[in-house]
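Hypothesis: this fold can be encoded by more than one sequence.
Test: take the structure tokens below, design a sequence, compare later.
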């Protein structure tokens, strides 16, 4: 395994004495604590997993905490399980994503295979649920990216389960095979996520997509899956989920594998798109800010004026003024109905003529942000609008949403990223001029 130190030392003499004395290990003098390879001081036993005992230890060389995984003693004579421990250690060393603990060393001492990894902090994800939409999506995106990285590398990933995913205070995710669940508990836990077509041993790509859909539902709703009941059959709280996220979960957990997203990467892109729309619709772009309260000033009270008397001629004058105002309003309205269509028809020719003369047309004439560049119009059919992104690409930040019919001015492009041509445009969102990138598939030249 590249980058992993393999040890064949025999310094496991003290490990046997440490097993079963978790309560006194941390109370003993430091020199008395068992040490592996004269480097890893075993501080406390954390749990017993499917194959291994797991200890929190101190790396005396690097002066940092680590985890020591040791094959359980009763499995030493079972060749198949011993081989599986070594294979899973090899797979752990090949995972390249921040959501997996790095492998430091893998070897054997005193006949006991062991694996040393970075320490894992946090608590199981299931203890934090439900998460609010924005935080839950950030967590889900880390998990999907980690699973996708494993599939691209051709190595298996730890179980997809809220019990096997650790979440720390900073919102960082770590996927592990948790040491607090034995083989039976782990199997029962995974039944809540298993796709209808899944076998006992390994899941297909479509089955993994199903498991991610179940987990996404659980993260946002706080309710674990129910064996045999697809998440799409349950209604999620409206305040936590937009319609496009609910549609994504419905698609990922479709009973028919052929109807699900094709692979984890596709599911990830759909999640990114749904997350982008969720983030931008949680607040209004360009909404007017509240004005500060006016300063209190003291002034002398105005002199009292004598009460007015409503004489008949004043009443008549007021009635005449109201009638005149209504008449002028009616006339103005009729004139506007006649003139506005005519002026609107001249808007583009006048603007084009000014641009040919090197004169920038005013925004009140065109309704488009100034400067040079072709005028484009948004043509997206989605009622939620077209994302204006900070950079080209499906995973970049969303600056705002442009509704169909919005006019924008082209700056540069096209640039192809994620198999999509992108145009850099300038647009008006609320009371702000914003520059960003939009998909060229959903804009056309203004005629």
């Amino acid at each position: 395994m590249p980058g992993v130190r393999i040890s064949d030392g025999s310094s496991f003499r003290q490990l046997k004495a440490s097993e079963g004395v978790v309560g006194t290990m941390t109370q003993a003098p430091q020199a008395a604590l068992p040490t592996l390879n004269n480097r890893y001081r075993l501080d406390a036993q954390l749990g017993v997993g499917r194959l291994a005992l797991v200890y929190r230890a101190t790396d005396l060389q690097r002066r940092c905490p680590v985890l020591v995984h040791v094959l359980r003693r009763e499995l030493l004579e079972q060749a198949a399980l011993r081989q599986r421990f070594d294979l899973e250690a090899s797979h752990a060393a090949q995972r390249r994503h921040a959501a997996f603990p790095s492998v430091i060393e893998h070897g054997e001492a005193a006949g006991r295979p062991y694996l040393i990894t970075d320490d894992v902090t946090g608590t199981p994800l299931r203890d934090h649920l439900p998460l609010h939409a924005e935080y839950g999506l950030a967590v889900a995106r880390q998990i999907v990216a980690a699973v996708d990285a494993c599939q691209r590398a051709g190595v298996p990933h730890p179980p997809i389960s809220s019990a096997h995913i650790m979440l720390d205070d900073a919102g960082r995710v770590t996927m592990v095979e948790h040491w607090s669940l034995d083989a039976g508990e782990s199997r029962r836990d995974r039944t809540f996520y298993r796709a209808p077509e899944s076998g006992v041993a390994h899941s297909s790509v479509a089955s993994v997509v199903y498991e991610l859909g179940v987990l996404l539902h659980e993260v946002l709703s706080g309710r674990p899956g129910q064996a045999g009941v697809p998440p799409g059959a349950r209604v999620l709280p409206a305040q936590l989920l937009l319609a496009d996220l609910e549609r994504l979960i419905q698609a990922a957990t479709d009973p028919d594998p052929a109807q699900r997203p094709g692979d984890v990467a596709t599911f990830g892109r759909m999640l990114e798109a749904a997350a982008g729309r969720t983030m931008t619709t949680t607040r209004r772009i360009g909404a007017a800010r509240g004005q500060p309260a006016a300063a209190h000033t003291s002034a002398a009270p105005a002199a009292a004026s004598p009460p007015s008397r409503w004489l008949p001629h004043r009443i008549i004058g007021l009635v005449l003024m109201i009638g005149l105002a209504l008449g002028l309003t009616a006339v103005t309205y009729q004139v506007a109905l006649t003139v506005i269509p005519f002026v609107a028809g001249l808007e583009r020719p006048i603007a084009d003529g000014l641009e040919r003369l090197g004169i920038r047309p005013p925004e009140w004439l065109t309704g488009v942000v100034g400067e040079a560049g072709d005028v484009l119009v948004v043509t997206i059919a989605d009622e939620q609008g077209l994302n204006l992104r900070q950079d080209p690409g499906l995973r970049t930040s969303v600056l705002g949403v442009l509704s169909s019919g919005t006019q924008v001015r082209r700056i540069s492009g096209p640039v192809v990223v994620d198999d999509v041509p992108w145009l850099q445009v300038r647009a008006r969102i609320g009371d702000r001029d914003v520059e960003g990138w939009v998909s060229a598939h959903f804009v056309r030249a203004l005629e």
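The two ends are 61 Å apart (CA to CA). The first strand starts at residue 5 and ends at 7.
Hypothesis status: open.
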